[in-house]
Design brief:
Elements (H helix, E strand, L loop, with lengths): L3 E7 L4 E7 L1 H29 L5 H45 L7 H4 L20 H30 L2 H7 L13 E5 L2 E4 L6 E4 L2 E5 L5 E3 L4 E9 L4 E9 L2 E11 L6 E2 L4 E5 L9 E8 L2 E3 L11 H7 L8
Antiparallel strand pairs: 1-2, 3-6, 4-5, 6-13, 7-12, 8-9, 8-11, 9-10, 10-12, 10-13, 13-14
Helix pairs in contact: 2-4
């Protein structure tokens, strides 16, 4: 094995002489130097970090970058909260104002707030952020994105209906079903609780009763629509008609002497559809009139005014037609 050669000056001979150092000795010297260097490095790190309480430059840089990263996440979280609050307000108005105006059902929370996948969907983000902030914010933003999409679709639907607002205005049942001439017609029962005229017990009355002195007074459609039912209920409504006006509205005309329309027939507001009568469970000539909104009865007096003059009412209805 080769040996490292060194030269040393001999003062007696006044010459440089070769001094050969064995490899093993040189190897051991290198090992000792490496161990000493490593020990000094460890000692330096201990004194620098533990004794003096200082941080390594790289640690300082990483900590600063981490603080900036979390600061940016906090800013994004705040923007998310603001955007979500705005969207929640829009959803509330959509459900309580915009959709009801056009007779549309509100969207349920289950539809609006449906999430995305499970927890594992965002687990890979833990490799970049052990605090879980990034995964949590990502999940919230995904849900916000879906909620915004659903809201956009709802507004598109409302916009489509709004374009038919003129049609809707003519479909809402907004006139009385019979003349307002007080010499011929009077209100005998209102919407709400009352004593049943047959049993004398409290019972909810789902419409209004307008009585006449005699049968045959013309009954008019209170809004545009399609006749969905013409039937007879011997122990209840007697002869009656139901008109579907669309946009969530329906009306019922009961205790009729005669029906002048048929199922599936399109009718217009003010069109003569029947004759007032005394059929079914009735104690005298009158019409029982109901208004349905989203399949629930509502107070008809909220939709028409009995104080309009007979002449004004006559101008709103069409000429009486002969019985079919």
């Amino acid at each position: 094995m080769s040996k490292k050669v060194k030269y040393r000056f001999n003062s007696e001979t006044l010459q440089y002489e070769e001094v050969k150092i064995p490899f093993s000795r040189r190897f051991m010297g290198g090992v000792v130097m490496a161990l000493v260097s490593f020990g000094l490095f460890i000692l330096y790190m201990f004194l620098y970090t533990d004794v003096l309480g200082l941080e390594l430059p790289k640690t300082t840089i990483l900590k600063r970058q981490n603080a900036e990263y979390h600061s940016k996440l906090d800013v994004l979280s705040e923007k998310y909260a603001q955007t979500n609050a705005i969207l929640s307000e829009l959803q509330m108005r959509d459900n309580t104002v915009y959709r009801p105006i056009f007779g549309m059902d509100s969207l349920s929370t289950d539809i609006r707030d449906a999430g995305f996948g499970g927890v594992d969907r965002y687990s890979f983000l833990e490799l970049y952020d052990a605090s879980g902030k990034l995964a949590s914010l990502s999940a919230k933003l995904d849900i916000l994105s879906k909620k915004a999409y659903i809201q956009v679709k709802s507004l598109d639907e409302i916009s489509s209906i709004a374009k038919r607002s003129e049609e809707m205005a003519s479909c809402i049942p907004s006139i009385p079903p019979v003349t307002t001439d007080k010499s011929k017609v009077r209100m005998v029962s209102r919407f709400g609780m009352r004593n049943d005229p047959f049993t004398k017990r409290p019972r909810f009355h789902h419409g209004v009763d307008l009585a006449c002195k005699k049968q045959g007074e013309p009954i008019y459609a209170t809004g545009d629509g399609v006749v969905s039912k013409v039937a007879h209920d011997f122990m209840g409504y007697g002869n009656y008609i139901i008109i579907d006006h669309g946009f969530g509205y329906k009306t019922r005309y009961a205790h009729l002497r005669a029906s002048l329309v048929k199922e599936g027939q399109v009718v217009k507001r003010g069109e003569h559809i029947a004759e007032l009568g005394n059929t079914g469970r009735s104690q005298g000539p009158h019409i029982h009139y109901e208004v349905f909104y989203k399949n629930k009865t509502v107070n008809p007096l909220n939709y028409f005014n009995l104080d309009i003059t007979p002449d004004e009412y006559s101008a709103m209805v069409k000429p009486v037609k002969s019985k079919k």
